[in-house]
Amino acid sequence: MRIQKRLLLVGIILCVPWPLCAQIDPYPREMIELGYQKELNGHAPFNGYLYYYRNVPQFVRSNLALRIVVSPTYLDGELGIRGALGPCTDVGIGFAGGGFAYSYNEIRSGKWFQKESWLGHGVGMSGSIYHLFNPAARIPLYGVLRSSFQYIIYARDSKTAPNFAIPDNQPEITLRGGLRWGGQEFALMPDMGFEVSGWYEGLFRLSPERYGYAYDRTIEPSVHLFWSRSLIRYVMPESKHTFGLSLNAGTAIHPDRLSAYRLGGILDLTAEFPYDIPGYYLGELSARNFVLGGAFYEVPLDSQKCWRIGAGAATGRVSFTPGMNQPHNWNSGVACGLSYRNPAESVKVQLVYGYGINAIRSHGEGGHTIAALVQIDLEKSKAGKGTQPRKPPYQFFKQMLRVF
């Protein structure tokens, strides 16, 4: 296989999202998601995704739900059991496996070091408990506990330096716990969103070791991550003007290159917690601690309100992972975009230009990117042909204003 084709395949799989929700989704969904970010200056890994997302709230039996994500070489899913531990406590059994999802790209000071990057494949299982604390409330408060095991297989890429030692295969245990008040639909350009959440995740490596040039880098035996997210996204009912605000913060104990927070880019559907900074490579900044705020505003252009134009910005302060320092702790970016959604909202398309104000490039500072994102909602397409449409999945967002 030619190297260009290989990099294209790796890039498509590299950004496969793992939509680990804080509850079992009660609504049917069937979507195809595509996204691609292109750097207009600088040289970075191919950044894109392509996957099929399916949620079946009544799978075989009324108390079973199946969520599955399928990409060309990776599969991620969960079987949910409602009421397994009581009327407000559900259980999920997760499974995942395939190629390229654990690949690592070394990016320092705006430069992609291909000789220090490698491929990663893996397989894993997980068990989750979801508990609803306030079943009678307008805005739900969920707690989640999750334990997972994954076995990661590392492989050299064609550009990995011969004298650079990649890590040996790594068995890993992950523990996560968190509280989420509200939430946001895992979709491109959702209309409503409100969330306040706090999380802990512990990574425990069963075969920690050193790697790199003369084994100058370490995989830590245990890493502890703590982070929080607050966001609001709202569409004004009459004008269809849309605004959003977000604030993310995180800290880590004993982080290494493989476990640090990765900030940058504008491909939201690559992770449950995306840390967007327009104009940067996807995951360009490797952070030990960070605070990141963002805002955007969007207005319709036509009477049917299908075409919209918007602008946004993000800024954050970063304490870098050891060995990954950059000149500026503050990093900011701005973006403008054009989007289209058909009247049934079964097709959404978005084109975004981003400028990274502090992104380091060969000429100095200033990174330029463009991103294209597409969502095809097959469930809404069926509704447009006479099938009963699903109810709005986050009706409590509209009721939220009454609470405050």
Helix coverage percent of residues? Answer: under 10%
Sequence of secondary-structure elements: HEEEEEEEEEEEEEEEEEEEEEHH
- Total number of distinct structural domains: 1
Structural class comes to mainly beta
CATH architectural label:
Beta Barrel
Number of helical segments with 4 or more residues: 3
What is the 3D form? globular
Largest sheet: 16 strands, antiparallel, barrel
CATH topology: Porin
Under the CATH scheme, which class?
Mainly Beta
Side by side, the strands of the main sheet go: 1-2-3-4-5-7-8-10-11-14-15-17-18-19-20-21
Determine the strand fraction and express it as a percent band.
Answer: over 45%
How far from one another are the termini?
Answer: 58 Å
Radius of gyration: 21 Å
Low-confidence segments, given as residue ranges, are 1-20, 386-404
The count of DSSP E runs of length 2 or more, i.e. the number of strands, is 21
Task: Please provide a written account of the structure.
The chain has a 16-stranded antiparallel β-barrel. The chain has a three-stranded antiparallel β-sheet with strand order 9-12-13, with no helix packed on it. It starts with a helix and ends with a helix. The chain has 404 residues and is mainly β. It has three helices and 21 strands. Helix content is 7%, strand content 56%. The chain is globular, with a radius of gyration of 21 Å. It has a single domain, classed as Beta Barrel (Porin), CATH 2.40.160. Residues 1-20 and 386-404 have low confidence and may be disordered.
Secondary structure layout plus pairing:
Blueprint: H1 3-14, E1 29-39, E2 47-56, E3 64-70, E4 74-81, E5 89-98, E6 104-108, E7 111-132, E8 141-156, E9 164-165, E10 170-184, E11 193-205, E12 210-213, E13 217-218, E14 222-235, E15 242-253, E16 261-263, E17 285-300, E18 307-320, E19 330-341, E20 347-361, E21 364-377, H2 378-384, H3 395-403
Antiparallel strand pairs: 1-2, 1-21, 2-3, 3-4, 4-5, 5-7, 6-7, 7-8, 8-10, 9-12, 10-11, 11-14, 12-13, 14-15, 15-17, 16-17, 17-18, 18-19, 19-20, 20-21
